[in-house]
Amino acid sequence: MTDKAQQTKAPVNWTATIMFILTTLVVAIAVPWYGIAHGFNTSAWVSAVVLIFITGTAITGGYHRLWSHNSFDAHPLLRLWFALWGAAALQNTILDWCSGHRVHHRHCDDLEKDPYSAKRGFWFSHMGWMIRDYPSSRVDFANVKNLQKDPIVMWQYKYYVPIAMGMNFGVPILLGLIFGDVWGMLLLAGFFRLFITHHVTFFINSLAHMWGSQPYTDENTARDNHFLAFFTHGEGYHNFHHIFQNDYRNGIKWYHWDPTKWIIKGASMVGLASNLRTVPDFKIRRAMVKMQFKRAQAKLAKAENTEKWSELLEKEYDKFHHLLNEWTEQHTEKLEEARKHLQEKWENASVRVRYHELEEQLKQQSLRLKMIMADYRASLAG
Ligand SMILES: [Zn+2]
Ligand SMILES: [Zn+2]
What are 237's strand-pairing partners? Predict the structure, then answer.
């Protein structure tokens, strides 16, 4: 079936459609009207900002990095927090969300299988996929069997509607009673917060698959984008995330804006999170160098008289393979030792030094590749 046929034939999902229309109208009309007629007090603004952060990071840290990808283990208290505030985001239950998201990773960009394939356009990947019941959105809990063993996930699944209502109306009303402006709080900490949280998450499916760089892989449309990362609590490093989905980080450099990563790290320091999974640096750099080769080769393939450069590249490629082999060997040995519980042995200095050397050599190679291509460009100009 063509995309057009799917779009016209799929029945409208009225629950989602009414929710989106209602929240958009309230934010576009009632919020400014109330602001002009009555004014919002500071507590309503502060609550809205704080709750945007709390709700957003329950989705990024809980729904996404914890439950969809098992990138760390969380204490029941933290899981309860994520389950409650995740429900406040009105993005369906943990089970539904994670099932769909695992399909998104598995069949990324596929027109028929990826529930929010960016190849079906901005609107579709942003919101369109939710306002009709497309075959691609049908969930099958077979891919979230591990989550069905989590009592907190199942509790949220069973009582989703009352929990979601309580978080979206109960919490703002309570805050309104405390700070003396129930309507102001409902409009800002309720509706406005929900509207922002919705679009922030939706941008990860739409813009983060269209706008930005691809330093690690070009096998899917996912992009790294610092600007988006700022608004999406760190999820803008989506190119990294799609290749290393089990890493609890999305922004890997210290200067990358990834508050979700900091929350998880912070939680681990007070015993609320454990087993934080990370990809070895060598593997990350290997992906980057691979992309460098790919780009360089593509560039040379388009031009003429590139023998000299191709030869240089070829030599570097041999070295690259040599490095990879050596690392794999080292890695297997390391695992072998670990299996034998000879902790002291594989943690000993010489192994660590060798690892470091290999990483360093890969870094040097990356720099050499950059220089070769800079020389090549200069040769064209001259
Ligand atoms: Zn994605
Ligand atoms: Zn993901």
Answer: 224
Distance 321 CA to ligand 2 centre (A): 30
The percent of residues in the chain predicted with pLDDT above 90, rounded, is: 70
Q: Cα of 207 to ligand 2 centre, how many Å?
A: 15
Half-sphere exposure of 355 (CA within 13 A, CB side): 16
Which tokens hold the place of 122?
Answer: 């901005």
344 CA distance to ligand 2 middle (Å): 36
Distances 201 to 57, 127, 208 between C-alpha atoms, Å? 10, 10, 10
> Any residues with CB less than 8 A from the CB of 43 and at least 6 apart, and which?
175, 179, 181, 185
Distance CA 209, CA 222 (A): 4
For residues 320 and 289, the answer to whether their CB atoms sit within 8 Å is yes
CA of 354 to the centre of ligand 2 (A): 33
Q: Using the mean position of ligand 2's atoms as its centre, give its distance from the Cα of residue 246 in Å.
A: 8
CA of 324 to the centre of ligand 2 (A): 27
From residue 371, give the alpha-carbon distance in Å to each of 24, 188, 324, 375. 51, 52, 21, 6
C-beta of residue 253 within 8 angstroms of C-beta of residue 232: no
Q: Summarize the confidence of residues 144-148 as an average pLDDT.
A: 97
Tell me how far apart the alpha carbons of residues 156 and 140 are, in angstroms, rounded to a whole number: 18
Mean pLDDT of 121-145: 93
Nearest ligand to the C-alpha of residue 101?
2
> How far, in Å, from the CA of 226 to the mean position of ligand 1?
16
Burial of 380 (0-12, 13-18, 19+ CB in 10 A): exposed
317 CA distance to ligand 1 middle (Å): 30
Q: pLDDT tens-digit profile of 222-242?
A: 999 999 999 999 999 999 999
Quote the ligand 1 centre to 209 CA distance (angstroms).
6
Structure tokens at 124: 């579709």
User: Does 87 score more than 60 pLDDT?
Assistant: yes
CA of 66 to the centre of ligand 2 (A): 10
Task: With beta carbons less than 8 A apart as the criterion, state whether 223 and 213 touch.
Answer: yes
Range with the lowest mean pLDDT among 1-5, 54-58, 83-87, 378-382?
1-5
Tell me what the mean pLDDT of segment 306-330 comes to: 83
Quote the ligand 1 centre to 127 CA distance (angstroms).
14
